[in-house]
Specification:
371 residues, alpha/beta, Rossmann fold, seven-stranded parallel beta sheet, six-stranded parallel beta sheet, GDP/UDP-N,N'-diacetylbacillosamine 2-epimerase (Hydrolysing), WecB-like, UDP_GlcNAc_Epimerase_2_dom, hydrolase activity, hydrolyzing O-glycosyl compounds, UDP-GlcNAc_Epase
Amino acid sequence: MKIGVLTSSRADFGIYLPLLKQLKEDTSIILKIIAFGTHSSFHHGQTIQEIKENGFHNIDTISSLLTNDDEQSIATSYGLTTIKFADYWSSHMFDLVFCLGDRFEMSAAVQAGVPFGITFAHIHGGETTLGAIDNVYRHQITIASELHFTSTQEYAKKVKELIGTNEKIYNVGSLSLDEISKIELVNQEKLRDQFNIPQDDYILATFHPETVGSHQNEKYAKEMASALQSLAEQFIIVITMPNADTAGSLYRREIQKLKESLFPEDIVIVENFGKKNYFSAIRYATLLIGNSSSGIIEAASFGKYAVNVGDRQKGRAQNDNVLNCKFDKGEILETVFKANELGRYQGENIYFKENVADNIVRIIKSYNETL
């Protein structure tokens, strides 16, 4: 069975990792990783190296990302990605191709495959993020896919609404949490040394632009920076930089300014942790802040509260560890201090299920036998 895996960023590669390991070890499967999007971007840490460092070398790379991140550049990148993948699908055949999530690059790659009859398996479909245009891209990917692996039953119902049938929808849980009980986290001292994190309590921050109502991002980026400036007086702030989204450079600029001008020692910027280091950073953090899906999906499994800012993740099912607030300095600070007083989160994670990768492999093999 020949399987392709589309990965467009550090984020989806980290989620894929348990599944990729299973596919690589299975002698009945020929695995090809198709890396594009930010993986080859020096500006985003050249994360193609992380794929190779994890032992995957059967990789095809496709470059289509523009440097700018305004609306016209994102739309042009979408078109260029579609053109590049039209060439790719015309000369590469697979029994099944995995796609994941909701990135615009992922949507472009999948849409290019529709005329070629590529069989796609979509992971993390059916979710809702009302503050991001990714919501549109995710549903496009779902409609173009043959198999669907959702992270909750609620999302499985949404997929059914989108495709009009119950068939080939599997609620397997969140793939990113699959090896959470097995992963060997990095020692705290080693993590701090590697990323120059001072020996004090730190908040782990990840902010992305809101791509619905994107005209507000300049204001939001300044509110974020102002809030982080106040928090840096009491905590170390470890910031993972945003992905390639519309107006992402606004946030990058404010973060760089904050570090260089005001808090060179107390603000730590990390372009790419890698999955093991990122999970370790969550484990040792006081709490999480931002608008990344990791606060919604993963933080609960590490007993951490997450302050979710703005509407980017609005509509996504939440655990009780998530505290929501607006892009307003005062409200952000109030919510962070409230979360800090709560200590360790003791509740469940609705996204967690056992043996996610095993179940996905079992399902695709069964599907392949029926063809």
